[in-house]
Amino acid sequence: MLAAMQQISVSPVFVGRDPELTALTAALRRAGSGQPQAVLIGGEAGVGKTRLLEEFLRQACDDDVLTTVGGCLEIGAEGLPYAPLATALRRLHRGMGADFEGAASGMEGHLARLLPDFGEADGEPNNEYGRARLFEHTARLFERLGTDRTLVLAVEDLHWSDRSTRELFSYLVRTLHRARVLLVATYRSDDLHRRHPLRPFLAELERLRTVQRMELERFGPGEVAAQLAGILGTAAPDRQLVDRIHRRSEGNPFFVEELATSVREGCSAGLTDSLRDILLVRVEALDEQTQRVLRIAAEGGSYVEHALLAAVLDDEEELIDSLREAVGANILRPDTDGDGYRFRHALVREAVSDDLLPGERHRINRRFAEALEAEPHLVGSDTRPARLANYWYHAHDPARALPTALDAARAARRRNAFAEQLRMLERALELWDEVSEEVLGGTLRPYDWAETYPPCSCDADAHDESCDRLNLIDVLAEAVVAARRTGDRERGLSLARRALKLVDEVEHPARAAWFRINRARMLGHLRRSGDEEEIAYAHRLVEHLPASAVQAEVFALGAGSGMLSNPRPELVELAERAVRIARQVGAHAVEQHAVMTLSGLRNDLDSDPDAAVAQLTAAVEATRRIGAPDVLLRGINNLSSMQRGLGRAEEAVALAREGLESARGNGLQRNIGAILTGNLVEALMDLGRIDEAERVLAECDLLGSTGTHAEFLDRMRGELALLRGDLSGAAAMLAQARAANRVGQLQHSVPIARLALRIAVGAGRPLDARAELLAALDEDLRCGYLADLYPLLVDGAAAEADTRGLPEAGPGRAAVLARITAVAAGLTPTAPLHRGWARLLAGELARAEGADAPAHWAAAIEALRPTGLPYPLALALLRAGEAEVLAGRREAAVELLREARELSIARSDAGLGAEVCALAERAGLALTVRRPAPAPAAPIGDSFSLTPRERDVLRLLARGCTNRQIAEELYISPKTASVHVSNILGKLAVAGRGEAAALAHRLRLFPEDLVPAGR
Do 453 and 504 contact (CB within 8 A), yes or no? Predict the structure, then answer.
């Protein structure tokens, strides 16, 4: 558009910053070796962040490095969703052409939300899950681009970024694990006030080992001298000049340039120490027409298109002359794409804008808005709604600002930019009372979307055009959902409270109930009281209404909340009612959500856990078909937890891994990643795979996968620390877990109480251990959570048995044992693991009375061996060994204790191992294993290291069963069956199912399945 101009004030030499360049070069080298890196460059405005970045990119450019830059845009005081990523992708597209399109192949429909060059976006729902897939496809695109070269993506001015841009940038940092990608971002540190949203974002990223953060300091006198020498073209500038400019600029390179230019032009005498004077002195030296163009450009935003400026100014020839002068004076610079202009430094734009009179600013913004409305193509479709809304807002025209803000909110939701959607909706709420009834009735868009919210409450036969009119309450509903999805639950509560003041519960009970249950959800996430009261209130509102999605959701939420706090039979009826209503009205996601709750209740209350597993598995499969990722992940999570509770830890591991993979792919890692990780770690610990469990937790810390269940992970860290013998570390994690204060949820309170009891026992505080037990038993333990309750009771009884005869523990001891016995009497074991724990409990209660016998422990061992879980078996072996020692059968005791020790070592259980060794030492038993005689050859199948569950799957596979048939036979999901089959094929080193079945028959791995000839 404009020819290259002489840059009269930019230093012709790059000064200083050697340590920063070295760090960036080292990060580029690591990224080139397949270790993705991120570098965050901070510093005050004008300190040289962009110049450092430009120098680094210049040095990095070669045949093996691809670079692209995008800058965050400021419109008024607000950023635009995804603007820097869209700019960076557009530059790559223009530079790479077909290679870029090849990398994006198959993902164009998703990526069109970022880069309209790809055409129309696909028809995927514009909700948080669509946004998650957008994030995933963006990451995949960068991985492909970095396949055979190193990609450097630089984002400038992160302090202006919108929340969606920050979340996408963070997603890339956390998920690009083996790609050759270097992410670089710059930001103004002096703009980060105490509540600036970038502060927690930077702090969170800085904890990751792949992220490096650097802060650029101001220049010292030597560097200022070198900069002045380059600008003024002298080998050694005057020392007094250096001192004066260094003093007045305080070492800020941009101000050094401004002052140096003033010196060259002989206009330094009139300058003051005011920042505005320094910034505006060169602007004021231009002719009036150029100053007018700059004032208009300043209101256009941090970037303004040439065509838009021309439309606002009318006289393009005059515009060109003014732009040429502004660019020549280095106040404006053409964008590298050649389509528009930026102020050389944002401080200059701000100073020019601040110098406008109020009426002048309003008039300029109106002209921008009118020009954009007349010719929408003047700006990109991705930024048009937000920019138009901002122009009308700053033009102080509420009648135009309100409808455009609502349109921009809808556009933001469709791009999954929920924070920006919320901001625009809040602006609409601000403007609502400032517009006329005519505007409200005739110019606003219709209601957009807010989950199951009912925008119209009239009967079908009474529906008319007025029902389609957007009302204030509808905007509040959209804002409540946007606030909840952005994680701003405090704001969501406030918006819901405002809405409830406007809703007539008699005329619109379903609407009132909808806002109530959304308040309940947010109160629950914030761990505040009142959620149950809100659910009960909503229940009363919809109890006698005709069937609706809201009614089904209220009932489903009520059943789900009750399941967590107190599973009881009446909740089954409530969940079944929710299922019927949801099915009747076609609310499929609500239906499956309720079915999942129903299966959980049946698992807690009924004596047929396999039926509950089958029902939950069916719900998970149904949810896969309807495409509701949040509900699907809830089902996978619950199924993993259910399988673990039944002693099927291998299935639990496979499901939790599947859930984590799905959460990462859908961008829901931070929402549900913590509880899925906790389920995985817990199941791995059950299997004795402690090192693997610790790696999973470490990876979770690296990815920052925390959320509302962070206390679950704290408890697991405490369990691992206790296993390693680190009592102080375990106690610290226990304190953090308890700080979450999840009162009344047995799935959290019972395991936490058990951890506290075991820490107290390990620290030699038996009375504290007793107090922990009694506090836990004071909760309502009528039903459910057997996998947690039995171990708590066993540990409590064991603590009493260990202190038998200790004077200080004598008072109250009988009452505690009676309490344990009474609670146990109310429990009904429904799985082999439960029966094994029940037999262990019987043995511990007998030991507490000095009446245990080898038969008690033999019965526990017999029940626990088939589960394949090392811990309860190791405890039973220890107790059996002790009983054999007391019975005088030393050889039997040695064998039992030797096995217990081996299990404790394999499980890294320092406490149990110490107990085994102490008992052996007291009894004078040698547990060292003598060199054994050659053992009989192991069955052929054992040489493949198949787990018991994998052998079950292989047996069915050899019979010709499909994954679905295997799943139905073993009460697992087809996806879990598929994971097992993949593992089996790898271990057998075969290419397919047919080869695996043939190998199993040939090696007679399952002789019982062989059919005699002639049958």
Answer: no
List of the chain residues with pLDDT < 70? 1-11, 63, 75-79, 123-128, 262, 265-275, 337-338, 346-347, 457-467, 665-671, 701-708, 740-744, 780-784, 929-944, 971, 998-999, 1001-1004, 1007-1015
Report how far residue 998's alpha carbon sits from residue 796's, in angstroms, rounded to the nearest whole number.
51
Q: What is the pLDDT of residue 408?
A: 95
165-179 burial, b if ≥16 CB within 10 A, otherwise e? Answer: bbbbbbbbbbbbeeb
pLDDT for position 269: 45
Residue 373 · residue 299 · CB < 8 Å: no
Give the pLDDT confidence of 811-834 residue by residue, as tens digits: 999 999 999 999 999 899 999 999
- Contacts of residue 579, Cβ cutoff 8 Å, sequence gap at least 6: 552, 591, 594, 595, 598
List, as one string, the DSSP characters of 529-546.
TTHHHHHHHHHHHHTTSP
DSSP assignment letter at 113? T
Q: Can you tell me the distance from the alpha carbon of 201 to that of 120, in angstroms, rounded to the nearest whole number?
A: 32
3-state helix, strand, coil in the chain (%, to 5): 65, 5, 30
Query: Letter for the amino acid at 769?
Result: A
Q: Give the torsion sign (CA, 529, 604, 664, 689).
A: positive
With beta carbons less than 8 A apart as the criterion, state whether 542 and 565 touch: no
Count CB neighbours of 957 within 10 A. Answer: 24
Q: What is the pLDDT of residue 6?
A: 33
Residue-by-residue DSSP string for 215-269: EPPPP-HHHHHHHHHHHHT-SS--HHHHHHHHHHHTT-HHHHHHHHHHHHTT--T
Which amino acid, one-letter code, is at 93?
H
β-pair partners for 854: none
* Structure token pair of residue 368: 């921008």
Q: Give the span between the Cα atoms of 525 and 988, in whole angstroms.
A: 46
Task: Tell me the pTM.
Answer: 0.70
Burial class (CB in 10 A: 0-12, 13-18, 19+), 596: buried
| E strand or H helix that includes residue 104 | none
pLDDT of residue 1012: 40
- Do 913 and 875 meet the contact criterion of CB atoms below 8 Å apart? no
